[in-house]
Structure formats: structure tokens, C-alpha cells
Design brief:
Helix content is about 40%, strand content about 10%. By secondary structure, the chain is an alpha/beta fold. The protein folds into two domains: about 240 residues, Rossmann fold; about 180 residues, no CATH class. Strand 10, helix 18 and strand 11 form a beta-alpha-beta unit. The chain starts with 19 loop residues before the first helix and ends in a 7-residue tail after the last strand.
């Protein structure tokens, strides 16, 4: 998924969207059972496990590392360590199940520690493992220093898109600072290399096949792995399926449409409650939301952090609150505080970001201490990975033309989120061109059958991306249609949860095109 960061970093005080593929494309992809010259030492390693550092880590969570080449085209020219964590199997183990929670930029070790209880059923048959991908968390984290603020300001919807030249210059300068702060890993970040890391991890964990559960962006990673290493795919589930083909500009339109659909579902739910701050009529509630966005853009509200709270900040907060139905009551209360008292603090809690500290560099970058992970690592990694995966780099004149041409299309897609999403077409300006491997070559994979879960009310990865990606991957893909709300289905639908577990644990796939009912229904 192409995540959209929420708002300007001065408001986002609570810390939580390269050319990696180019070098790879000059080298043939390796045979699954025969590591190419120079990689044998990486495939020969085994993980040494110990208790995870930190008093807040679960006692039964174990941590370790896997060493991978910095540059797969030149494996002798440096290495970096990938942080991994696992919950041991409680039953008869059939190996490891690797999880990627999405992003790009999500720290898998931390997320497994925080949300491990949701996956305890899978420990009946697996060691449940997650990891910080290269450039993320403890795995040589990228950072843009203070330039993260500038880059996010330029792409958060508040930028002046009628004359974007100043914004483009700011983005070019920010890209230079990202290179300076991130060190040698930045040119080698991206999903193509992350998938290669995944295969080294598979072997280091002692598994002949990769069993994998990927959410959101994790579905992109899983699909790329399947294209590179089809012989090594075991049981694979992709939930909240990302697009493999759409350019950034088209992704923004689809995301705006998805968020608008999710907003309308939220407003229908809200107006059934007498406490709904928008009243009891869904049509009037939709109109009221647009009015709030327009009013705040004209007359922003002051905040405790010195930055004004604009309509685009309001749209960003709404977008975050729509990710999960469990967040809807909190979102309703926060909107009520804004409309009744002009209090933005509740909505600010839905916005993410933070400040930065320098990241580690060196020819062999070991694991970064958790306290030293840059607080801008999530947005820095998100932009770095998405740009490394995208080959389009229009010139400044073309960007200006595109913004003018696309503006009406975005606003038609969503009167609330259109402008907010429009500026994501600027995200990669000033960065090196990314790989075309994903767009051109991830298709018709010759793997065992895999399960793709799409949720009808998903605000981030719309259901049609699940269908399109399944068609692109070919006959290996089996689609499960989750007729619920929120981003991804495994954590919100008991039906999806049970069908995914049945496949991963027992190999039982639902029929292609079968469905689960609305949120929390079993069907």
C-alpha cells in the first residue's frame, strides 16, 4: 500500500510513507536451490536466539539477527544485520511463519511484541517470526534529519499546488539530506532487495519453504518474493492487497476513493447514534464534513505546538481514524471535541511522526539500539521504499502539468481527501529513478496456491486491487472477499481469521471467490 502520512510534523509530536532495484536488474535472479557466488556465507548462517532487550518486551519473545549483503550485486562490499523476533511454536512445529505488518516502514519486531496475542493460534504449528526490513527500525534505519519535516510539509495537502516550483525545490533539497543522514543503505533499499533478504532469512531459520503472512505493503513484498523465488514459496497469505502496477498518481486517486467510501460508512454508523457530532442525517453529515475541511483551510485553529490545524490536517486525521472500525468511537469523540470546543487535541492523536537523531553507518552495520532509531524512520523509510519501487520521475514542468490536470480528478474522487492525496504525486521528486521490475515482471508466478484477502470497505488498499493483483499473479492466486470495513481483514473478521489460520496451519484453502460477511460475522 502507498501509505499517506497524516499531517505536518510540528503537530505530530507522538512518534509512531533510491535505486535499489537497478543494480539487481543487471544480475540474473538466483536459482532457488543454489545461492550465486558470493552469497553462500549468508545462506550458511543460523540465527542465535536470546531474550529481547528492553523491560517492556514480552518474556516469551526471542530476538536475533540475520546478516545480509548491503548490495546483492557486490556481496563482498559490505553487509547489514536484519533484526528478527519470534514466538516459539507451542505445538508440533512445521517451521517458521514470517509476518510483515505493512508500511512500508513498519517495525516488525515491535509490532510482533505489541500484537503477538493476535497470532498465538498460529504457534500451534509455527514459530511466528517478524523482522525489521532493511532501512527500518533496528536494521540500519534510514533518516532524513530535519528534512523529514520539509518533505512532509510539501506532501501533506497544505502545499500550494497551483505554483509548485518552490515545493519541488524543497523536495530536491530534502532528498539530498536523506542521502546524507541515511548512509550506505539508502541506495539499496526497496522491495526487490527486501525480498532477497527474506530468502536469506528463510534459510537462516532452517526452512526449505517460506511460509508468509503479509499485510498491506507486506502483500507487495510477498508478491515480489513469489516472482523471484517461486520454488521456495510455501503457504502464503496476502491481506489488504497492494497494487503492483499503478503509478503514484493513479494510486492517489484510488486511495482517495477508498477513503471516501470508508468515510461514508463511518458517517452512516455515526448518524445512528444520538451523540454523533454531525447530526442524524447521513447526507447532511457528508456535507458537514466538507464544510469543516473548507472552513479550517480558510481559518485554521491554533494548537499547543504553535502550528495551525488546517482542513488538510483534519482530512489526515479522518483518514487515520478510518483504518479500523475499532477506532471509530474515538474518532467520533475527537470530532465532537473539535466541533463543540475547537479542541484539536483528540484529532492530533491520530496523526503520526516525530523528530530525528543520526542513524548508524559502516561497512557492516550491526543492529541499531532501539533508543537510537530515528524518530522520523517511518516516514523516511516509507518514502524511500515507495520511491525505490517506482520508476517514474517526471521533470518539473511535467509535474506542474500533472498537478493541474489531476486536480479535478482527485476532487471528484473525494471532496474530503482529494486535495490531501493529490500532493503524493510529488513524493519522489528529486530522488533517483526506481526499479521497473515490480511493474513489469511480477506476474504469472508459478507457485503453490496462495490466499489473497480483500476487504470491501478498506480505505487504504481497495478491494479491486486484490482482484487485479490476483489476475496478475495468475492461477496460483485464490481470492477471499471480506465484506467488512477497515484496513485488512485478519484482525477484524472472525471469518477471515479462521480461514487464514486453516490454510496456514492445515493447508485448507477456501474456494476462489468465496466470501466472509460483514465485520465480525462468521459465514
Amino acid at each position: 500500500m502507498l501509505a499517506k502520512l497524516s499531517t505536518r510534523p510540528s503537530i505530530r509530536r507522538c512518534a509512531v510513507t533510491g535505486t535499489a532495484g537497478l543494480a539487481l536488474l543487471g544480475t540474473a535472479l538466483p536459482a532457488a536451490d543454489d545461492p550465486p557466488p558470493g552469497l553462500t556465507r549468508f545462506y550458511d548462517q543460523k540465527v542465535t536466539w536470546s531474550r529481547c532487550p528492553g523491560t517492556d518486551m514480552p518474556k516469551d519473545l526471542q530476538c536475533g539477527k540475520v546478516t545480509v549483503p548491503l548490495d546483492y550485486a557486490k556481496p563482498g562490499k559490505g553487509a547489514l544485520d536484519i533484526a528478527v523476533a519470534r514466538y516459539r511454536a507451542t505445538g508440533t512445529s512445521r517451521g517458521s511463519l514470517l509476518l510483515n505488518f505493512g508500511g512500508p516502514g513498519g517495525q516488525g519486531v515491535t509490532q510482533l511484541a505489541m500484537g503477538g496475542k493476535d497470532f498465538m493460534g498460529l504457534t500451534n504449528g509455527y514459530d511466528v517470526v517478524s523482522f525489521d526490513p532493511r532501512g527500518v527500525g533496528r536494521s540500519s534505519p534510514v533518516s532524513c534529519g530535519n528534512a523529514s519535516d520539509n518533505a512532509l510539509n510539501a506532501t501533506d495537502g497544505n502545499a500550494d499546488v497551483t505554483d509548485p516550483q518552490a515545493v519541488l525545490e524543497e523536495l530536491r533539497a530534502a532528498a539530498t539530506e536523506c542521502t546524507e543522514h541515511s548512509g550506505p543503505v539508502l541506495p539499496h533499499i526497496g522491495t526487490v532487495n527486501a525480498a532477497r533478504d527474506l530468502d536469506v532469512m528463510r534459510d537462516a531459520l532452517g526452512d526449505d519453504k517460506l511460509n508468509y503472512l503479509g499485510f498491506s505493503y507486506g502483500s507487495r513484498l510477498g508478491a515480489v518474493y513469489a516472482a523471484q523465488y517461486p520454488e521456495n514459496v510455501g503457504r502464503m497469505v496476502l491481506d489488504g492487497v497492494d497494487t503492483l502496477t499503478e503509478p503514484l498518481a493513479d494510486q492517489g486517486v484510488v486511495s482517495a476513493q477508498g477513503q471516501q467510501t470508508a468515510l461514508e460508512s463511518f458517517l452512516t454508523w455515526c448518524t445512528e447514534d444520538i451523540a454523533c457530532p454531525f447530526g442524524r442525517n447521513p447526507r447532511e453529515a457528508r456535507e458537514h464534513v466538507v464544510e469543516v475541511v473548507e472552513s479550517l483551510d480558510k481559518d485554521p485553529l491554533p494548537t499547543d505546538f504553535g502550528e495551525a490545524f488546517t482542513g488538510q490536517d483534519f482530512a489526515g486525521a479522518l483518514g487515520q481514524g478510518l483504518y479500523s472500525r475499532e477506532l471509530w468511537p474515538s474518532l467520533q469523540r475527537a470530532i465532537g471535541q473539535l466541533l463543540e470546543d475547537g479542541d484539536t487535541r483528540g484529532l492530533e492523536t491520530f496523526l503520526s511522526g516525530g523528530f530525528t537523531v543520526p542513524s548508524r553507518r559502516g561497512p557492516h552495520a550491526g543492529l541499531t539500539d532501539p533508543a537510537d532509531v530515528p524518530l522520523d524512520n517511518l516516514p523516511a523509510a516509507l518514502m524511500a521504499v515507495n520511491c525505490a519501487d517506482d520508476p517514474d520521475r517526471p521533470a518539473a514542468a511535467q509535474v506542474t502539468e500533472d498537478l493541474g490536470r489531476l486536480r479535478a480528478r482527485y476532487e471528484q474522487a473525494s471532496p474530503v481527501f482529494g486535495r490531501y492525496r493529490l500532493t503524493q504525486v510529488l513524493m519522489c521528486y528529486g530522488r533517483p529513478k526506481g526499479t521497473d521490475y515490480i511493474r513489469d515482471d511480477v506476474k504469472d508466478v508459478d507457485t503453490p496456491r496462495m490466499l489473497l484477502v480483500g476487504t470491501r470497505g478498506d480505505p487504504a488498499t481497495p478491494y479491486r486491487w486484490t482482484v487485479e493483483t490476483a489476475e496478475r499473479l495468475g492461477s496460483s492466486a485464490v481470492v477471499l472477499d471480506n465484506r467488512g470495513e477497515g484496513h485488512t481483514g485478519y484482525g477484524s473478521s472472525k471469518c477471515v481469521h479462521s480461514k487464514v489460520d486453516a490454510f496456514l496451519l492445515y493447508g485448507t484453502l477456501p474456494p476462489d471467490g468465496s466470501s466472509c460477511g460483514s465485520d465480525r460475522d462468521d459465514e
